[in-house]
Amino acid sequence: MRDQNYWQIKFKMCQYSKRLLNQLLILNKHIKDKVDIIEIKKAIYYARKYHADQKRQSGEPYYSHPIEVAYMVATYTAQTRPRFFRTDMIVTSLLHDCLEDTNITEETINIIFGSKVANQVQDLTRIKLEKKISVVEMINSLFIQGKSDILIIKIFDRLHNMRTLYAKSSEKIDKTVNETLCYFVPLAMHLNMNDIANELINISLKYLSGRNYKL
């Protein structure tokens, strides 16, 4: 874990992290309970380190996705749900795909970021006891447990994926649109995230337009 002591020296700014950090500095000026910028920079470093050379199908670095999710979570919570504008929420957003898609372990996340973040990242991981569950099973589990904060992260994860859906195959687009309309839109509405629900609907309708589509 030597890297844990030297991450600040190794940290490199990129266009995605710069945008997020600049936004956090602005949001912190208007919020009583400010987030820890240093801890968030550390999470950016590890998200970039472990996602490394992974690419999204859009061609962007994979780490651009969790950084964008963190940006949306931070902006939304600061402006509409200040009690969820928390360092652990933003750190969890940055690491939300790490357990599922990289070789980092829950134990390592626990050592670096603490048990709360490690548990929240595990909540957002579809691999449970060596079995991969569906997205629907995940959100149902989080809903039953009343984990609204983690569901907010999952909704913004889906929103960013919907915004970049053009890079997917037609089969994947159909599945994602179906899933979004059947589960994520009602969930967003239940959480009073009506603007987000409307955007999810509008993006879905764009892909459904002119197609003989059945839910």
TrEMBL record:
Gene3D superfamilies, per this entry?
Answer: Hypothetical protein af1432 (1.10.3210.10)
Superkingdom, taxonomy of origin: Bacteria
SMART domains assigned to the protein according to its UniProt record, in alphabetical order: HDc
**Protein name as annotated:** HD domain-containing protein
Q: Which Pfam families match?
A: HD_4
Q: Which GO terms describe its cellular component?
A: plasma membrane
Natural source organism: Candidatus Tisiphia endosymbiont of Sergentomyia squamirostris
Which residues are in the HD/PDEase domain? Answer: 58-171
